[in-house]
Amino acid sequence: MDVIKRTLFIIVLLLPIHSANAGQSVAFYYNQIDSVRELINYDRVVVTPSLITDKQIKTLQKAETQVFAYLSVGEYDGEALPKSLTGLSPLINPNWSSHVMDLSATAWQEYLTNQASTLTGRGFDGIFLDTLDSYTLFASSPDETSKQQTALANTLDALHALPAKPLLIFNRGFEILDQIRFKPYALAAESMYNSYDPLADSYQLVPESDRQWLTGKLEEVKKAGVEAIVIDYLPASNRDAQKRAAKRLINEGFTPYISDGLLYEFGVSTIEPIAKRVLGFYDGQFGRMVTSQCHRMMSMPIEYYGYVPECVDIRTANFSTIDISRYAGFFFWLEEASYQQVPSLQSWVNTVIGKRPVLFLNALPTNRAILAKLGIADKGNISGNITQQQGQNWTQQFYPAAYSQFEKHTIWQPTQIGVSSEITFGNEAGQTTTALFKAPWGGAALSPFPVTQLANGRISWSIDPFRLLDNTLKLTKIPAADVTTESGLRILTSHIDGDGFPSKAWFTNKPYTAEVLYENILKQYSLPQTVSVIEGEVGLRGLYPEQSPQLERIAKNIFKLPNVEIASHTFSHPFFWDLNNTSKTKDHLPIPGYTIDYYNEIIGSTEYINTTLSPSTKKVKLILWSGNADPTEEVIAIAEQANLLNVNGGNTYVVRGNKNFTQVSPTIAWYPSGVQVYAPVQNENLYTNLWTEHHDGYSRAVETFEILGTPRRLKSISIYYHMYSGAYPASLNGLKKVYDWAVKQQSTPLYLSEYAQRARALYETGVARTLDGQWQIATTGVASIRLPDSLGYPRGNQFAGWNSGPDGKFMILKQPKTRFTTNGSPDSALQLKSANGKLVNWEVKNNVIDWGVSAHMPLKMVIRGAKSCKRIDGPRLTIKRSAKGQIELASPKTGELKGTIQCQVL
Q1: Average pLDDT of each block of 10 consecutive residues along the chain (906 residues)?
Q2: Which stretches within 460-499 are classed as H helix?
Q3: Burial 807-829 (b: 16+ CB within 10 A, else e)
Q4: Distances (CA, A) of 185 to 19, 149, 165, 221, 267
Q5: Residue 498 phi/psi, 5° resolution?
Q6: Which residues are CB-neighbours of 95 under 8 A, at least 6 positions away?
Q7: 304: which strand partners?
């Protein structure tokens, strides 16, 4: 660069321009990334590129989080230098055992450029350039220092000039700011007030002289219009100190990030991430995670409260790597023998008691020191006729828990003040034992609690699981990510598994069941419907090649309907979905010569439908799991790689007289590589005793929807059945009753794929607090947040509005990151109360609303806070006052509708 240009650049660089990134949060996280559910809380994240997947990068970007890759410029951190770099390292950095590199070496410069190109090719928004000043460890003369600085400036200019134009954050590099041809996106520096010594694994205060020097340097950076980020080191175990440190830095004009010395925890920036995970433990010797009590019983109530349940096998868990700062609580659903067989578990339990709420289910640890710490003692045995003595308010309306008269049972008693006996049992001899404890550290529900094995083989809660969590884990009330609701109204979906497509129905002329549903359901009810077929029942490769032309014609007619989206129900309808299942040759349709192949079941059947049955404007969007609907993570990955959503599984089934929450599944089974979305409610099989009687029994699904809608909205309205429901007049009439009820409800009808997109994002929704007390929601797909009534009413302009539900305020989101406050009373703002479609746009300015809704049914929209409204632009609307301060707008049109209205506010 010539002298004049360089001088002009320096003048521009030093002008006092305020950073465009002021107020944005940032995180530096170098640990393994199993999920991005915490990282999406931040506006920018710096990560180790080898520890994040391309899919996770895209997920973060959906939440409008920029992702920066770590790249060491001055050091190579591998154990041994590659052959191409041999001889280019003058020394080893003893703090990190890394190779300090000669920046003037052409091979090293090419290496850095290639690395940066690879990173931008993966989709990173930018690069965090570390160790910019490592050359000072060996450059002892002015000439060598100048040589290294010139080489460094040239390298940085080359990185900035890459075709992808990556955003570049420097770690220090003060000395070369006047030598580069561009202004960095930001500059970070470590240890202004608090530092970390990696060799001693200790934290200490920074000397005042060092702090003043660094402050002066960063003030120069700020004057140049570059964001100054300060990374200070304090562990998350002292969250209050982290927040104080962050606030101090904000007040001084810096962007803070306060975290542990290795940057392995989620720290505090301008926001504090809320610990949303709740970790449960099960014993894998008794089965897979999805069959464990941890998942089947506890995940649903935990996710209802807005938290993320994680279930870990004690046989494979690495307790030494568990970061308790990311968890709101822990629970253990284990047998006593499991504690005895895994000593490392009990050692770890001893370390977390008192640090996070803990709930023991079924059994307690056997370690005496732990029991003493819990304030619970083993007082011998109790036997005989044991009856409940205390706590009937816990157990009324539930199946009674019973102690066997033919066995001895441990007498459990509290030994510390504050540890209370909530439910006790006793015998004729006056002996008593506690079955439910509540304590400052959490609580315990011991065998025969918290569930009872019934004579019919089913399991029933003996106590209310929601009350149990409220009294033991005491999870903080937070805004809860919600997939039951869209635009303020309960979601309504309908989907059909392809089973029975070729069966003949008991109607005149013996039509196929698929024809009956086509004429009587799919054409009659304009709701969005998701319909699948089994290739082995319909296609030429299947069981009925001679009938295939006629069956394919019916399928084509169904798929042409404008309200039908297409799914595959596999090729041969496997009952089990486990790659290691040794009986897999016997659990599917007996198609001659066929050996089960899960790629063919998913991808092959999809290609058949797309090429043979689908109209040119539609493609298969989902795989609907068949049989036991129990895919392993490896099988789910096949669907993920094919860009197919997946639904089915779970066991949600409740009716009047059987309101058993053990049969209400969580929303999803989450794995790092993919997500299984459970059907919100089970199909007609459970209402008809596996299709053996009461063929009109599916009409009772209305009871299910009502029970799961209030007093807690636990599930969406999900109509789900098979093709064979068109077989009998009774089954068809039962189905019509469900549809007739559903269309009368105030709901937002969605395709199953749209529900699945929201459900799979449920656990990757972030909750944080800004340091000035606002809530922040970050989402990768969820469009609804339930604000518990105890938190009051939401206020702000970053969301579209809210609607009251049975258990809170259902907020309508309009952007990936949303900040709001709460208040004890509602405000009078002009807001959207509800719409029966997906919100596309909502902007309010000077009482003028630019709106957009994608609706599958004729549009209905309700606005709160207005006396009257008039249409300015867009489709013609019927406008009327529906209640005080509420205006209803309607249009007979469907699809993506946009317009502008002007309202007179209250």
Answers
A1: 37 42 90 96 98 96 97 90 90 86 94 97 97 91 94 96 96 94 96 94 96 97 96 96 97 97 97 97 96 96 98 96 96 97 96 96 96 96 94 92 91 96 95 97 97 84 96 97 98 98 95 97 98 97 96 98 98 90 69 94 98 97 96 96 96 89 96 96 94 95 97 98 97 98 98 98 97 96 97 97 97 98 94 98 97 98 96 96 93 97 94
A2: 465-471
A3: bbbbbbbbebbbbbebeeebeee
A4: 9, 20, 11, 11, 22
A5: -75, -5
A6: 198, 199
A7: none
Token digits for 581? 């299942």
For residues 449 and 427, give the distance between their C-alpha atoms in angstroms, rounded to a whole number: 17
Cis amide bond preceding 711, omega within 30: yes
CB contact at 8 A, 194 and 233: yes
Residues, the chain: 906
**Burial code of 296-329, b = ≥16 C-beta within 10 A, e = fewer?**
bbbbbbbbbbbbbbbbbbbeebebeebebbbbbb
Per DSSP bridges, beta strands 848-855 and 817-823 are: unpaired
Furthest-apart CA atoms within the chain: distance in Å = 100
Q: What is the pTM of this model?
A: 0.94
Taking the C-alpha atoms of residue 809 and residue 260, their distance in angstroms, rounded to an integer, is 37
Q: Is 600 helix (H, G, I), strand (E, B) or coil?
A: helix
Measured CA distances, 141 to 91, 144, 859 (Å): 16, 5, 75
Among residues 682, 205, 735, the alpha carbon closest in space to that of 516 is found at 735
Instruction: Decide: 36 and 55 in contact? Cβ < 8 Å.
Output: no
CA 828 remoteness from chain centre: 33
The three-state secondary structure class of 341 is helix
